[in-house]
Amino acid sequence: MFYEDLSPYAYADAGEVFTDRVDDMRFVSFRPAYERLNVGWLEAGHRWTAGPAPRAFTDRLLAILEAQQVNAMLGLHECDLCPTPLPDSHPWYMPRQGHRRASEGTGEVRVPGHPGTAFAAPYLIGHYVADHGYLPPEPFVDAVLGFDPYGPWPVRFPGVRFPWIPDDAVLRHVDDGECLGI
Fold first, then answer.
1. 8 Å CB contact between 30 and 162
2. Cross-strand pairs, 19
3. 10-residue mean pLDDT series, the chain (182 residues)
4. How does DSSP classify residue 52?
């Protein structure tokens, strides 16, 4: 799925569902009060910016991907920039030979930008940067470098690594029956 960098986000427009990464069995869902901007929604046949990304940016981006998961979907998206599809026997979460990141993924991440704006990126953005040389726009690079995914977080949501969770949000368990009731 392709979206221009810095265009308004519209992929899963029902709201945000942040997975609690402590156990991956709890989540917080809400309608965001912030604007979301697309970054890294690449697809073969569409132009995107390539270039060397600063190492500190790539390292921090990969840390954010480990710490956060938003809008996890039931299916997988395979990178169509890679020259050949993975065989069915290859575990989807394992990188291809010679790659740093898996070339299939599910879900997204959010990176806070200036007040009132968050960047919305597919989970595959780590693969695109580390393995295909994608260079995201400077505002996103700056936001990633300024975001500490392991910083202090409210006790109420210890495994949800994002600063703008509304006060009325509720942490739910996947077995609660209201699984994605936004």
1. no
2. 27
3. 95 87 88 96 97 96 94 86 88 85 89 96 95 97 96 81 89 72 46
4. P
